[in-house]
Amino acid sequence: MIREFTHIDLRDRNSFGVEQRAARLVEFETADDLRELFRGGIPEQWYVLSGGNNILFTRDYDGVLITPVGRRITPLLDDGEAVLVRAEAGVEWDDLVEWAVERGLWGIENLSLIPGKAGAAPVQNIGAYGCEAKDAIERVEMFCVETGTMLTLDGRHCGFAYRESVFKHELRGRVIITSVMLRLHRTPQPKLGYGDVEREVEARGGVSLRNIREAISAIRRAKLPDPKQTGNAGSFFKNPVVEASVAERLLAQWPDMPHYPAPEGRVKLAAGWLIDRAGWKGHSEGHVGVHERQALVLVNRGGATGSEVLAFARKVQQAVRERFGVEIDTEVNIL
Ligand code: EPU
Q1: Protein residue with least CA distance to atom 32, ligand 1
Q2: Along the 335 residues of the chain, how does pLDDT read in single tens digits?
Q3: How far apart are CA 251 and CA 259, in angstroms?
Q4: Closest among 54, 47, 38 to 68, alpha carbons compared
Q5: Which residue's alpha carbon is nearest to atom 20 within ligand 1?
Q6: pTM, rounded to two decimals
Q7: Which atom of ligand 1 is nearest the CA belonging to 295?
């Protein structure tokens, strides 16, 4: 069923907690709801506002925001080892992780506590602690706005890469994700290689799904601000991927610079480290600041507007450019 709001305050619908309004917002559950919504034609301006965890509103929105609220999780196939699960787009991502962990299903436990909804997971291919959503996504179901029909896209064809997918490019503004199908496994497949994960898991009594979930949750809680208390959108910037020659030049000067191999011989750098070393960690101007414990995260110190956050972000980008000659792109969608 569709629920419709007009001239709606978005403050509680974006994790930055900025106060902007939208002309119209429609909550949908099913594909039929979307058919009904688009029956009268395609609105001139529309945008999917999911959990609002990766968005910065810099002004009021004149068009229609479309929000998934369907929250069903349905196991579809079970061959004794692998289980295919469908999650509707409005399922809270972390509820899905908890659902899987409770049932002894491996595959997404490292993505514990990532804020946002399941339907948004494929869009930016959410990732953390050595795991990405693409590793588990089997298929994505979506409503095609132009044709009014449902489409299913195989995970292999979603153009997944680091914080990237076809949904940010070719399919942007053309489809609305209605559900995501994941392949999860009963055979344990622990991924403990990232940072402190192994140590935190051992401290909880050794490898189990529950211990991994709790270890990751604890690591995240220690580093990342809770959007319920401090407005933020997680990593505001993406980690830059640079040519090997650029990484070599930087490493000659900063031998302790974190760096990771990326596809095609390129090198991924840690934007948090670059911002930190540029001297911006914990720095605030007006109502906006760089988080004290993770420099990738910009925070609303209370009452910030979207344009203030954006202006501050531009300064951070400039500081990193001047210090290291590296461009850091925003991860957050700016509307
Ligand atoms: N670092 C610093 N100072 C900082 C932050 C990081 O020196 O202020 C250094 C760390 O010491 C480490 C390296 O940079 O050597 C990487 O830091 P971290 O492990 O904290 O991860 P990240 O690269 O900063 C990424 C994701 C996070 C995810 C973590 C863990 C992106 C844009 N961010 O951060 O995702 O939780 O890895 O896997 O890729 C998000 O996307 O919203 C998010 C929080």
Answers
A1: 238
A2: 899 999 999 999 999 999 999 999 999 999 999 999 999 899 999 999 999 999 999 999 999 999 999 999 999 999 999 999 999 999 999 999 999 999 999 999 999 999 999 999 999 999 999 999 999 999 999 999 999 999 999 999 999 999 999 999 999 999 999 999 999 999 999 999 999 999 999 999 999 999 999 999 999 999 999 999 999 999 999 999 999 999 999 999 999 999 999 999 999 999 999 999 999 999 999 999 999 999 999 999 999 999 999 999 999 999 999 999 999 999 999 99
A3: 9
A4: 47
A5: 294
A6: 0.95
A7: 8
Q: Which residues are known to be catalytic?
A: 163, 235, 331
DSSP string, 23-91: EEEEEE-SHHHHHHHHTT---SSEEE-SSSSSEE--S-EEEEEEEE----EEEEEE-SSEEEEEEETTS
Is 272 a pocket residue for ligand 1 (Cβ < 6 Å)? yes
Angle between helices 93-102 and 209-223 (to 10 degrees): 150
Query: Quick check: CB of 116 below 6 Å from ligand 1?
Result: no
Name the residue type at position 18.
V
CA–CA gap between residue 54 and residue 56 (Å, rounded): 7
Pocket mutation for ligand 1, best pick of 292, 296, 326 (most atoms within 8 Å of C-beta)? 296
Residue 148 structure tokens = 């009014």
Ligand 1 proximity of 331 Cβ (cutoff 6 Å): yes
Q: Give the position, in ligand 1's atom list, of the atom nearest the Cα of 126.
A: 41
Domains of the chain as residue ranges with CATH: 3-68 (3.30.43.10), 73-223 (3.30.465.10), 231-334 (3.90.78.10)
Residue nearest to atom 19 of ligand 1 (CA): 195
